[in-house]
Amino acid sequence: xxxxxxxxxxxxxxxxxxxxxxxxxxxxxxxxxxxxxxxxxxxxxxxxxxxxxxxxxxxxxxxxxxxxxxxxxxxxxxxxxxxxxxxxxxxxxxxxxxxxxxxxxxxxxxxxxxxxxxxxxxxxxxxxxxxxxxxxxxxxxxxxxxxxxxxxxxxxxxxxxxxxxxxxxxxxxxxxxxxxxxxxxxxxxxxxxxxxxxxxxxxxxxxxxxxxxxxxxxxxxxxxxxxxxxxxxxxxxxxxxxxxxxxxxxxxxxxxxxxxxxxxxxxxxxxxxxxxx
Length: 277
Ligand SMILES: C[S@@+](CC[C@H](N)C(=O)[O-])C[C@H]1O[C@@H](n2cnc3c(N)ncnc32)[C@H](O)[C@@H]1O
Known about the structure:
Number of domains: 1
CATH class: Alpha Beta
Structural class: alpha/beta
CATH architecture: 3-Layer(aba) Sandwich
Distance between the termini: 23 Å
CATH topology: Rossmann fold
Bound molecules: S-adenosylmethionine
Radius of gyration: 18 Å
CATH superfamily: Vaccinia Virus protein VP39
Helix content: 40-55%
Mean pLDDT: 84
């Protein structure tokens, strides 16, 4: 198992979410991931479009009442609560940001689901769970921050034989061998996001973690619209962050804007895998 180059230190990710999290949740309505748009004329709101992407992931888990599901990199818990409400499954969510975990537990309690949905602080790359503890595992846009081989091996370990893993990831779209800078180089650098893989890399990443590939779906055409929609809300994000950290807001805004300017070229995928019996 090799460590990826350009993987952010865990404390860098926590800093990013501590700063940007409250601002993003104000404009993003609780889902910290891209939206799914049918086409460029689709007038769906950000909450509608981000819930659509959540549902594409949840439907692929194929779980029901009595199943135990792990949400890796749970944000503030909106997808996990939605899963419990829609399927009757029990959900455990983990994040390496304590503020998110606290907010997510409040969300579960407010939904009357505290007995069936709980969130805890944990590192996805060193999970505090036994082997084969979960019937299904999902990771909605969280692997972008992780060392992929290490994180996938942990997800495979805690999944029971026959169980499904469903994840989404940002992917590289620059043609292979071209002189174009990769999306990762032009948009993110190495600070907040790990270098992006091509979708084909998952044909090796998943088996290397001991998983069988079930589906690799490129939905780039449906997610690229999200950052354009966010554009007008950036002033609101800036105002929120400035209120909390003053001048440091400018640095964050610069990072967000660099991401957005590169976002037109970020690809996006859903991956489904199964742990062999
Ligand atoms: C883009 S957000 C997605 C959140 C959530 N899945 C959603 O869709 O709303 C990425 C999440 O991954 C979490 N994360 C990043 N690195 C992590 C790690 N090593 N262990 C656990 N969580 C991590 C972040 O704290 C954040 O909650």
